[in-house]
Specification:
The protein is mainly α. It has 36 helices and no strands. Pfam families: Arm. Keywords: Repeat.
Length: 584
């Protein structure tokens, strides 16, 4: 959940944020013993009958300060035998400010998983639920955040926690808080929906209570609210509800929620909201043919395609961006009856679209689908006509086409050749992958030549040597060996290694183009990958001709091979040893 700002604890004195750390009883130089003593003193003061309500307010805000400032202080508070009983007592009968401070302390403690369990087992749930009924908005905020944090571990492996939440009726109470008759503050609403998101999994038995409490109507209303945290949590809850109770899907569709979710997936919404909305659309499309039709009829396919490419177009990063791509792709796959059919559909769609921007988005979505495609069964059978997809991409790859479209096509081809489930059904996939790498990094004067090489390799049923124009291509690749970019060098030398494995004619071409000196130089200065490939190429050259072998030796290769034999990786050492047997 995207958290809303936490409520600030209150104090009858100056605000805690303006106090120096010394006001909490510690300084930066205090050691662990001082922290232990400080916590013990605070707890002793809370226990004392003579402490006035205002003094307890001051003590609790000071404890909150050290809990926020020091991890060891949180551990000490959590391990003190009297801390939780005192906190529960204050939650039940303290002043409003003291209650708020204690709820905030529990929130801080729950950020550590071990302490979260101690807080849960300490009996905090009943008084926190009572605080949710408070007339004070700030108190409700603090209680809601504490409930959210104490439930944040989920329940899948926590049978004791599950019993506590079930026994105390937490889920029905939280649904009641979201009833339209309870006009909640946005922060409270966000934390309450977040707690429900923590507690209601697709396999849990809580959904019966949710449905009885009008959960579907509540979720639909929250999706249309202007509260991003509540929208994100509501969409996630809807996804789980659909997976747990598919009988509810007709009601959900009739409510018009498909159009709402498609709107939430769009560009102008918070990333967490978009990801959760895509999650809900994935669940709906998985469970219901009617939902698939509703999504298609609402222009959902193009909206979902836009969601798949949104992270790259909008420079989005992080887990929500990844979730948005993943859920949107799976929703599209559900609509198309599987990833294989989705890939073929996107390929055909890219050919039929006339607008460059639309083609770029479609091919971008295709690139992502090709990257994540996995074949889990029938491994000896081609999952779909992989060559057909390659043909579509080659057709779209034009040297002087719209740059955005060209970049997306190259991205899709890189995904195709880089996916081991798919590349094994294509000829020269490794060489094509390396050519793609060279193309994406090439200067303008080289770019078109490399695209023509790739097109020839894909379409003309020739080998790599013929596709690159024989000696012309070798000369170009040799010129790339001296570039400062490590990645560029790696691609160039890797393609030369592939060539020397396949075509004897290229070996004299490399020698004639002056390729041996830069290859020897790479043995000393290149990356580990470039060194290994350079050593392999030079060994291949030495094996081909005694005359070439003499050229390699005269270029100073022996000391370079000896050095690589000492510091190189296993592949580099093996190639060096083989080459040295030819040279020495």
């Amino acid at each position: 959940m995207s958290k809303s700002p936490s409520p600030e604890p209150q104090d009858c004195g100056p605000s805690s944020s303006s106090k120096p750390r010394e006001s909490y009883g510690i300084t930066a130089a205090d050691d662990l013993d001082d922290t232990v003593g400080t916590v013990a003193r605070f707890i002793e003061q809370l226990q004392a009958n003579m402490s006035s309500p205002s003094e307890k307010e001051l003590i609790t805000v000071q404890m909150l300060g050290i809990a926020r400032a020091r991890k060891e202080a949180r551990a000490i508070i959590g391990s003190h035998g009297q801390a939780m009983p005192l906190f529960i007592s204050i939650l039940r009968s303290g002043t409003p400010i003291a209650k708020l401070n204690v709820a905030a302390i529990l929130t801080v403690l729950c950020k550590d998983e071990d302490l979260r369990l101690k807080v849960l087992l300490g009996g905090c749930i009943p008084p926190l639920l009572s605080l949710l009924e408070s007339e004070s908005t700030e108190t409700r905020k603090a209680a809601a955040e504490a409930i959210f944090e104490v439930s944040s571990g989920g329940l899948s492996d926590d049978h004791v926690g599950m019993k506590i939440f079930v026994t105390e009726g937490v889920v029905p109470t939280l649904w009641e808080q979201l009833s339209p008759t309870n006009k909640q503050d946005k922060v409270v609403e966000g934390f309450v929906t977040g707690a429900l998101r923590n507690l209601c999994g697709e396999k849990d038995g809580y959904w019966r209570a949710a449905l009885e409490a009008g959960g579907v109507d509540i979720i639909v209303d929250l999706l249309s609210s202007d509260n991003a945290a509540a929208q994100s949590n509501a969409a996630s809850l809807l996804a789980r509800l659909m997976l747990a109770f598919s009988d509810s899907i007709p009601k959900v569709i009739d409510s018009g929620v498909v159009k709402v979710l498609l709107h939430l997936v769009g560009k102008n919404n918070d990333t967490s909201v978009r990801a959760s909305a895509a999650d809900a659309l994935e669940a709906l499309s998985l469970r219901s043919s009617a939902a698939k039709k509703a999504i298609v009829d609402a222009n959902g396919v193009h909206i979902l395609i836009g969601a798949v490419v949104a992270p790259s177009k909008e420079c989005m990063q992080g887990e929500h961006a990844q979730a948005l791509q993943g859920h949107a792709t799976h929703a599209l796959a559900n609509i198309c009856r599987g990833m294989s059919d989705l890939i073929l559909y996107l390929g055909e769609l890219s050919r039929s679209s006339c607008l460059a921007a639309a083609v770029a988005d479609i091919v971008g979505a295709l690139a992502y689908a090709l990257m994540v495609f996995e074949q889990t069964s029938g491994l000896d059978e081609e999952p779909f006509d992989v060559a057909q997809v390659e043909d579509v991409l080659v057709m779209l790859l034009k040297p002087r086409d719209n740059k955005l479209v060209q970049d997306r096509v190259l991205e899709a081809m890189a995904s195709l050749y880089g996916n081991t489930h798919l590349s094994r059904w294509l000829n020269h996939a490794e060489a094509k992958r390396v050519l793609i790498g060279l193309i994406t990094m090439a200067a303008a004067d080289v770019h078109e030549h490399l695209i023509l090489y790739l097109t020839s390799l894909c379409c003309d049923k020739v080998g790599v040597w013929e596709a690159i124009g024989n000696r012309e291509g070798i000369q170009l690749l040799i010129s790339l060996l001296g570039l400062s970019s490590e990645q560029h060098q790696e691609y160039a030398v890797q393609l030369l290694a592939i060539l020397t494995n396949q075509a004897d004619d290229c070996k004299w071409a490399i020698t004639a183009a002056g390729g041996i000196p830069p290859l020897v130089q790479l043995l000393e200065t290149g990356s580990q990958k470039a060194r290994e490939d350079a050593a392999h190429i030079l060994w291949n050259l030495c094996c081909h001709s005694e005359d070439i072998c003499a050229c390699v030796e005269s270029a100073g290769a022996v000391p370079a091979f000896l050095w690589l034999l000492r510091i190189g990786g296993p592949k580099g050492q093996e190639a060096s040893a083989k080459a040295l047997t030819k040279l020495v």
